[in-house]
Queue: 4 jobs
Job 1
Amino acid sequence: MSLVHEDSQISQDSQMTIIDEDRHEILYFAYGSNMSTAQMRQRCPYSTPIGLGFLPGWRWIINERGYANIVQQDSQTGGGVYGLLYLLPPRDEDALDIFEGVGYYYEKSKVEVTWQLDGEKKAIGGGNGQVVRALVYMDEERTVPAAPLEEYIQRMETAIEDAVENWGLDRAYAAELRRFWA
């Protein structure tokens, strides 16, 4: 069985330094349906997936609007959220702002994410537990867990499978996400 899904973007097999001064891309942490590289390719055609990230001290929910959101937990609760990291150039960030409804539904923030590697998988330019700052979209107004919209369930299923099959997302964590609609 191939580890690369036909709709997934193939990452370049080269080393890249994220902190180069002449680079304009930023890191983006996708924890919802944007974990689907096919969806991101449609929304942000110049972005590049680079590996899994882990955001400690946060919790993943479906909010009152019916879409994925993250909420901060108190420091003693632990836990965290897994997602896919992308290199996101400015023109794709502008497009993503529109898709995410910045100013209406989601706000932009920067968070510290641990860049993960999974066994044989290789992340471009690093990984291995490196802490990086990444852009994240979150809804600070709607933070109560609720049921997902029907159309969103299929997009999340696609995103979860992509992340599991191609990026090493843990199946137990994937099952935890699915409990919101199972």
Job 2
Amino acid sequence: MIEFGDFYRLIASGPLSHWLNTLPAQLTAWQQESLHGKFRQWFNAVDRLPLLTPERLDLLHSVRAEMDAPLADGQKAGMENLLRNLMPWRKGPFSLYGIDIDTEWRSDWKWERVLPHISPLAGRTILDVGCGSGYHMWRMVGAGAQLVVGIDPMQLFLCQFEAVRKLLGGDQRAHLLPLGIEQLPELAAFDTVFSMGVLYHRRSPLDHLYQLKNQLVSGGELVLETLVIEGDSQQVLVPGDRYAQMRNVYFIPSAAALEGWLAKCGFVDIRLADLSVTSLDEQRRTGWMTSESLADFLDPDDRSKTLEGYPAPRRAVLVARKP
């Protein structure tokens, strides 16, 4: 079973210590009552991976771990088989001792769009909401973060994260907890909070923005990345049953409307840092994610539209500060 004792000890004497009033009971209940039917299978794959300490580790430009001498073919094949038991891999890519996990998303491209526009992460305590497999968490560590806490209720992502962490020598600078943002108390303890690819999945987007704000220290920075549409400050798309074949998409505002939402929630120094249309090279089917991807969700005769006739995915990065 995945243990969280190292994380509890890590936060026991810092600004997150009051989280220990509620967190251990939450995670104990999760382990007793909420495990996915495949969790044991996924955990066994993680458990069978070796604990390796890389002789060369690059988290600044990628997530890459290497030894001076290549792994034996049999060990490498065994590790790759265990990692493939954790498919589909959506956020990445990872390069681990010659095993290249070619994920559905080129999350490194998103990181390169985000990083130039945010406050330096060196020495910061960071929360990554909806962190997926934790790819961006490792990039945050590479940028100098003191501690990165990721939350995501998807248990496969937790196992993927723990698999990568094990192959990075058990690095304690990043921790993933199987929780949603609504399960967190008002911690007011993080210097930077990231919410990337989450807002459009929330039935109440303003509540989500308030929840993010409640996790920040005074003066802390929010980095928000989400789907947007073109339009003025009053434009918001409310899709029907599906958007790009996703069922749980509720509100897609224009970038200008999103700035208004942030202001309404009390954020200041709000700025649009990046705006880009998602390309078929950035999100695609791979050998590590073999089901449908973006190309299957767009109108084959007009790639500027989804199958449902809505504008194709356009993503914005906004940066704001809590007063």
Job 3
Amino acid sequence: MKKGVLYMILSGREIIKHLGKEIHIEPFLPERINPNSYNLSLFNELLVYENRQLDMATPNSTRKIIIPEEGYVLQPNILYLGRTNEYTKTDGYIPMLEGRSSVGRLGVFIHVTAGFGDVGFAGFWTLEIFCVQPIRIYPNVEICQIYYHDIDGEYDGYTSGKYQHNEGIQPSMLWKDFQHKK
């Protein structure tokens, strides 16, 4: 860090000031803005891996679960992949994702390991959902929050990558890294 330079998280008001410019959230609902974040909601689909033993070097098969309006009960020790309803795009800020504290206090963990986005990311966020006890979840619930960090130094922007410009829930594509090593 440069001497005298302070890196900041944008306030809710600053997020609104940058909407339609460096920050895009579609759809955007003003009532979801927080003091320093914006609540994102859960799409009505989940993916689960079909096998109990996964392999990093190969694609792992998944199956789709539709979350009905009356809810779906998540089970412990299963990783569920979800998706936000909202499409986000960011330029000039680092998007970061966290679970909402109200959701975490029910023993549901959202985006446990990969909440750090890249400058220039554009797409829907795939959520890593894990619970400690059975819990009923619902489609469209405000499940996580996005916040924005400023960045220092030059960056090229993020225009390509395994998860850039996605449409649906993205299972791990780590296996592609192994292809590049061959």
Job 4
Amino acid sequence: MEAFFSSTLGVAIAEIGDKTQLLALFLAARFAHKNAIVAGIFIATLLNHLVSAALGVWLASAISPEVMKWVVGGSFIAVGLWLLLPDKDEDPDGKWLKYGAFTATVVLFFLAEIGDKTQIATVLLAAKYQSILPVVVGSIAGLMIASVPAVYLGEMLMRKIPAKAVRIAACILFCLLGILTLLGDGIVLKAV
């Protein structure tokens, strides 16, 4: 139970004000399907944190910091550029609206979690407790505790801020993180 509670508390605290919490706000402003966003956050976090807990320690020892820097930096830039793509609201058959919120959330959250402090915390907690399941369940619970309110309350906040401005600001933030990661010595990886 200690692994679960430590993971829940650690990840919930780490997530407050984190880029993925800001991403939850952005997605809440962009899509009307809040439950699909929450489900997407859950699936992306489950996949990301399972991989993190199972393979994180091995990856850290097997991949050079230089390669990891390029993977993480490139991922940040890719997410930033994807945020600029306009919504497909004009799609006459509504397929984008039906699947857009969930798919966009899964992909964006999964990519945003790469190199994120909550992913790193999951790796470290799994190594400390040598137990995958309670750490993964706890880290998912912590991330959901911090992100779900942003999804449901974010719409109220975002009504006052134009979606285009949020999309551009999010793009700039992710691209800046990517550039700083690529230029740095891993300092940004520790900071985000």
